[in-house]
Amino acid sequence: MSIFSDNFLWGGAVAANQCEGAWDADGKGISASDVCTGGSHTRSKRITRTLEPDTFYPSHEAIDFYHHYKEDIALFAEMGFKVFRFSIAWTRIFPTGMEETPNEEGLAFYDRVIDECRSHNIEPLITISHYEMPFALTEEYNGWSSRECVDLFVKYAVTLFKRYKGKVKYWLTFNEINAGTMPMGGFLSLGILNEGTTDFTNQIDNPQLRFQGLHHQFVASALAVKAGHEIDPDCKIGCMICHITTYPMTCNPDDILEAQKRNQILNQFCGDVQVRGEYPRFMDRYFKENGLVIKMEPGDLEIIKEGCVDYYTFSYYMSNCASADPELEKTSGNLMGGAKNPYLESSDWGWQIDPKGLRYTLIELYGRYQIPLMVVENGLGAYDKKEEDGSIQDDYRISYLKKHIEQMREAVADGVDLMGYTPWGCIDLVSASTGEMAKRYGFIYVEKYDDGTGDLTRKKKKSFDWYKKVIETNGEVLE
Ligand code: BG6
């Protein structure tokens, strides 16, 4: 007997800007990700103001899911997916974000994707905004720093709820909304460029714009949740948080307070707003001490209160430590690094691998919010090697995922209400942070390389059959 419920949602996750390609097909507009070049730098250091000739932009072709979706979804079905998490590119629906009527060809593409999932009994789980927005909104309004984006986003979300009503039950408003609390989220999540800057490869962080933008996203998300529930009372709309699990470096009370503060600002702030419908009081002090003033319109707090999410989802890749000593050795991580934990090993990109941290996180989150949880991203970005016979023996990935699933089991035994699990990049795709293809997460290998070459052929890795077995046995057999 499996500890996971019979209807546990096993599957995988991707995002439009990292897999679709076809960046200008069928009326699609230019998105924020489309102006980011390749390379190993963070996205904010890879922005070009206009599209430059002879420059490689990884999102433009990506893995061309746009033209391979049938083949890819068939492979997901072969693994036994119950759910497929993907995002809709805002720019396929409203190319600049400012049109009055949606682009029918864009809507029709997602009809096809959703129908294809349904034909294989795969439940679509759709992220409405995943690290891309119309670049025209950056140019016109400096992204989410402007209030204008609220109504434009709600118009877009309502269009989706109406169109896909009855076919899509699970929605997420913003991917990793708490990215806005971190410098890296400025352009990546909020489409904000530093005002007056001419050097687009060297963005200077502006926390005031970021936190104001985040407030606008909270209001937009809450309005979308309200509208979604009115349009389709059966649908479930969740939040999505990048969980930066942080331990105190030592039992020194200064380290403990430092870890608690990081956890509040980076993780709990956004979760509290979206689940509890309130700005947590600890933010007052943070705003004050950092000279941040959040401009709110009358009624904003009521909207936030009325637009609480139905379930809580998060990404979990790693953990790190907090220390009062700024000199301690640092490590990198998803969106945010921290002090290095001597007990953990790291991925090729320096992210510290911590399966038990997932159990800890699930228990903490369920204790705080008491609503269903879902792990919608987890996985190991690694350099995969093709053997002489063409096979990819990704035992390191199997080992990573196995250990995390074991800890999910423990968390469920600890009483956590866990709905599902969608490992990240179930098919290889472009890295969000670096733009690389070399950082692979998939069960399916894609012939596409960092210089843009590759014939896009799909190939099952060793982990493909392993995950198939995991799903078949509802998480019982992990060998
Ligand atoms: C999450 C994002 O932060 O992590 C994804 O939601 C991203 O878009 C994933 O791809 C892994 O990060 P990276 O930088 O390895 O692609």
TrEMBL record:
Protein EC? 3.2.1.-
Supply the Pfam families for this chain: Glyco_hydro_1
GO MF annotations, alphabetized: hydrolase activity, acting on glycosyl bonds
Q: Which domain of life is it from?
A: Bacteria
Q: Give the UniProt keywords, A-Z.
A: Glycosidase, Hydrolase
Give the InterPro entries listed for this entry: GH, GH_1_N_CS, Glyco_hydro_1
Query: What family does this belong to?
Result: Belongs to the glycosyl hydrolase 1 family.
Q: What is this protein called?
A: Glycoside hydrolase family 1 protein
